[in-house]
Design goal:
Blueprint: H1 3-12, H2 18-25, H3 29-41, E1 62-70, H4 78-86, E2 91-96, E3 103-109, H5 112-123, E4 129-136, E5 142-143, E6 146-147
Helix pairs in contact: 2-3
Length: about 160
Amino acid sequence: MSEREVLELLRENARYSTADIARMTDLEESEVEAVIEELEAAGVVRGYQAVVDWDKLEDERVRAEVELNVRLDRETGYGDIAERLARFPEVTALRLVSGDYDFDMEVEGDSIREVSQFISEKVAPVPEITQTVTHYVMTSYKENGIELGDGEDDDRLSFSP
């Protein structure tokens, strides 16, 4: 029995029932329930979420990827900065990354103005942050492993020999 198999199935579709997962893994339903309970209790499974295609809704939802550079001192580490930024409800994801900047932060709001104000009034003033670069998401084609859109748009020209 593999916890990994159960996790992969939950990531594929968190709405699978324990009976569905048992069938797909050749486990007993009670074993699947026990594995899921253990994973949740250990904090491995932190929650279940829907993958939303915001472009299908009439309500505007603005998302941005923000690159952050920071300057650390003796009293402040990456974890301290991350803890402070993660508290904001506008921040949907925050990662320490390698490369040209330190943090990759995802932000959501109801308008470009709201996201811009959040970054300029709440994020940029954090003393350790030395630079922010904001990239607004124009269109999402895939979220959390799920392809978005109706799948019927094919812009390729037809070809017949």
